[in-house]
Amino acid sequence: MFLGPLTFFLFGRAVVMPDAPVRPWLALHALPVVLPFILPLSFSLPVLFGVGCGYAIWLSSLVYRARGQRRQRRFEAVFSLLVSAAALAVFSFGVSMRWIEPAYFFAVYATSVGATYATITFALVGIPDFLRDLFEVTQAKYSVSKLGDVDVDKRLEQLEALMHNDRLYQQDDISLATVADALEVTSHQLSELINTQLGIGFSRYVRSKRLDAACKLLRANPDQSVLSIALEVGFRSQSTFYAAFKSNFQQSPSEYRAGR
Fold this sequence. Notes:
Blueprint: H1 4-16, H2 31-38, H3 41-65, H4 73-95, H5 102-126, H6 130-142, H7 152-164, H8 176-183, H9 187-198, H10 202-220, H11 226-232, H12 238-249, H13 253-257
Helix pairs in contact: 1-3, 2-3, 3-4, 4-5, 6-9, 8-9, 10-11
């Protein structure tokens, strides 16, 4: 139990901030592990649950900030609310456990932890781009600015030219690194440039260009199949295209083509 908050923090940090530097002060996060050896359980358990609650709210806040990256903003709000509520419930019961039957406490504890992990699993499995969007948000937030010697306006113009004239978005294997090389900047600089100047992440930016092109093709070529259009603009499958289109426009490509 005392390893739970530490492992949750390390997992969350590795997932959303894989490039963040490792600092000596991070060792302080392991302090709750030694609490039961130096303090009575009546004190160490509430402290433990307080630390775990803080980690859960920290993760929830990161997810909530990601709502600007996506159209499914309601999900980010619900996710943050559920995880925060579960954390606060465990913390409240942890502080009050001396007055609560152990069976009730562990029932609430197990249910809250299970609900939290179920919510996270749903986010990772049900929404494939969720983790990537979250990573881009945290990368922009926690990285030191690397645009000091970059001509921002010029690079933005070049980026738009690559997308509009060269149709770079059509490449299904397009990546942050390949576009950064074409612009003669680093991946971190390009990621920060798009996040700070356009307010979205790289994957969302590319997806928007593909969807804009798809919309034009759907109306201009009524006899062209949806699958053919999806592949032409850079999506790897029809299912991925449908999911992105529906998320962005709240209707299917066929409904859009029919003018509904």
